[in-house]
Design a protein that fits this description.
Elements (H helix, E strand, L loop, with lengths): L20 E5 L4 H11 L3 E6 L13 E3 L5 E3 H6 L3 E6 L4 H10 L5 E4 L5 H4 L4 H5 L6 E6 L16 H7 L21 H24 L3 E6 H8 L2 H7 L11 E7 L2 E7 L2 H10 L14 H6 L1 H12 L4 H10 L3 E4 L3 H5 L2 H5 L3 E4 L9 E4 L23 H9 L3 H9 L3 E2 L3
Parallel strand pairs: 1-2, 1-6, 2-5, 6-7, 7-8
Antiparallel strand pairs: 3-4, 5-14, 9-10, 10-11, 12-13
Helix pairs in contact: 1-7, 6-8, 7-8
Amino acid sequence: MIAGDAFDPDHGHGRPLEGIRVLALEQMQSLPYATQLLARLGADVVKIEHPERGDLGRGAQPAIADPYGRPVGATFLRNNLSKRSVAVDLKHPEGAALVRRLAPRFDVVAENFKPGTVERFGLGWDDLVAVHPRLVWLSISGFGNLEPSPYAHWPAFAPVAEAMAGLYAINRGPDEPVKVSPVGALGDTGTALFAVIGVLAALRQRDATGRPQRVDVAMFDAMVAFADIVPNYWSLGKDPRTPTLIINHGFALRRGEIVIQVGREHQFARLAEAVGHPEWVDDERFATRQGWLEHLEVIRAGVRDWAGDRTPVAAADALAAAGIAAAPVFEAEDLVHDDHVAAHEMLVGIPRPDGAEQPVLTPGNPVKIADLAEDHPSRPPWLGEHTEDVLSAELGLDPDEIADLAARGVIGREP
């Protein structure tokens, strides 16, 4: 699925959030990923960026160049499909005033600045609800705004929330150094999912009551929810650092790797039969789940011999036929060329303006709704690409007013 070259105002036609408008004061990934999900479900998302540097995600590496030679980083490319970019200096009083004027024309205003920042701009909850009594406000931060936190003043990126929630303590050996960001920016993308749920619930509540709604999501809180087994196991007397007594491990084959999960005795019997070692069922070494782990290398050797020259996909397929949960360990190229990924349209190709043949790949939309066609998102916007269109259409500014604001650095627009 290839992203379009320009914003298509009708691309959300017939989608569930068509007619919902989102004004996003956002940076990096946690909120941009959330608003991108809303856009892919049909919402009209207008992104406010600094006129010179834009969203900080534009400065990430690796990067491509936009048509004007400006860098567009990977973080930005992954999180800003189907949005429009309006470049406004929020620190400039006239810039903040423009955003206050825009806010009542949108259902949702969302921000993920450090706590207290938008209030200094005159763009906080109290400021905007005064001019927009049906506002749905979304705020994402490291440690929240509605309840006190001793960490409220800390800067927070994904690994901060992940580390504090205990995610780095799961199945970690006593002398094993911490591995930061083992699954990418889960602290951002995971938080975004809760933010989207909050916005959808708040929109329904606003429509039911007519009252403004304030949604506040802390990254730390979201990761505590994701790391549910850490406090749960602790409360049951188990150290989450120690492996659970199940086979939940990687298995090296001659041609790659697979993972296998076996957690019950009948599943172990299936595995033993499937790999040609039915005698394991009556072997004293494997009489307990603890024994499975103590003699895991014996099982690994048996699986490797059984697999022979099978590919990881073929080995996992054979185990699945026997009722055993297994999967190939994909490298990036395996994922990119996988049949399931292609059939589910789970990779979007963003054409490169520098003429490179390989498009930039970013994940597709995992939310499938049966009676709706797959969405075809527009590419991420160039910095300030839609400033003039939005300020003209929404606020009635004429070309001379826009040119004056641009000359004084209040706004930025496409070169």
